[in-house]
Predict the 3D structure of the following.
Amino acid sequence: MNDVDVAIIGAGAAGIGAARHLNGRGLEVLVLEASDRVGGRAWTIGVEGLPLDLGCGWLHSARRNPWVAIAEQSGFAVERRDAAWTTQLQDLGFPPADQAAAHRAFEQWHARLRDDPPASDSAADALPHGGEWNAYLEALSGYINGSSLSDLSAADYLAYVDAAGDEDWRVPEGYGALIASYLPPVPVAFATPVLRIRDDGDGVSLETPRGCLRARVVIVTVATTVLARGAIRLPERYDDRCHAAARLPLGLANKLFLRLTDPEAVPPESHLLGNPRAAETGSYYLRPFGRPLVECFFGGPGAVRLEAEGLDATAAFAREELGALLGADFAHGLRLVAGSAWGQADGFGGSYSHALPGHADARAVLAAPDDRLLFAGEACSPTDFSTAHGALATGVSAAAAALALLG
Ligand SMILES: Cc1cc2nc3c(=O)[nH]c(=O)nc-3n(C[C@H](O)[C@H](O)[C@H](O)COP(=O)(O)OP(=O)(O)OC[C@H]3O[C@@H](n4cnc5c(N)ncnc54)[C@H](O)[C@@H]3O)c2cc1C
């Protein structure tokens, strides 16, 4: 590995965005990626001829999401249909009056967060004592934030909600495939985890198992969990960044794909919440894009428990919840085809970042300007954290800062 002007650590959405911005500017750029693939938490796999997103799947805030234009320019179709996740197929297990009450509880909790925010900044402290729909709100937090409400900064959560748009679109060929395809023709060193960064003259040296290289500027895009664990040793003056990363842990969300024996058993593009009165329950997207699949989504403490038990146990849990709503025959006809375990995955340790109560300001600390190490990645976004478009924007900003530094 030769010395470079800019080293980009991580080939996820942020690293790809940074590489794209730097490409063609006459600089030596190298992307160092710990795994053997591009995309990071954006990952489309092909199973039985179907593209499945194990990581990001929804183009959130779609009307202002830059991946929409990138998709269209790159020949990827964009599905603009409304998401089905706010609906309950045939109101199964969730009568309309309960749906209305649960929705009201969600709105009232939001109003309390906004109008009477808890002094603790813990989102759980805005729940009504003994509230009938508290478990439902916990389940939603699991999906949205990957965490329980007691670990969630109310201020940070509101910063996202206030900036987010209502439209959520999809890429039938896979969001992960789109993001990976956006990597420009820059060199990528795969299977090359950066282990240490040291000051070295007017630049830095990076240590990897494949040897060392020098760079004038480094863009660090690894997930906060990776930084907080000290997987990359940094010069002491970046301790504040590592502490900030620890205050922005990755919550957990996992997906599981079950193939339907009888695809006509349920309507396409429909949805079921497993148990609206349980904090640990699955969200089941039935026949996404009309495919013969159920895409199961688990988040928060429930996802942590299921991930520890393994994919087969998670599939059994999903069959049980779906069987209770759609009948035992339907549940028997579900075959496990793929699933994620982001918490155990090397180089990730979770799914998306949230701020711990009292630490919404950690995002600005992590993303603060510097003359050698520029931090990027979804957790650095002040409002679009936890998303692929937020990650892209931080990568582009870091690349612009690198260009300014290098004159
Ligand atoms: C299950 C799930 C569902 C999601 N759903 C959505 C969604 O619908 N919409 C949405 O917008 N977002 C969603 N997200 C979040 C989105 O995927 C992420 O926010 C985004 O992809 C993060 O990109 P990133 O570049 O910041 O980080 P990453 O994708 O984590 O990229 C960092 C890269 O660094 C590499 N790396 C780690 N350590 C090292 C090292 N020491 N040296 C070199 N390389 C290293 C990693 O292998 C990785 O490739 C979801 C995520 C998950 C897991």
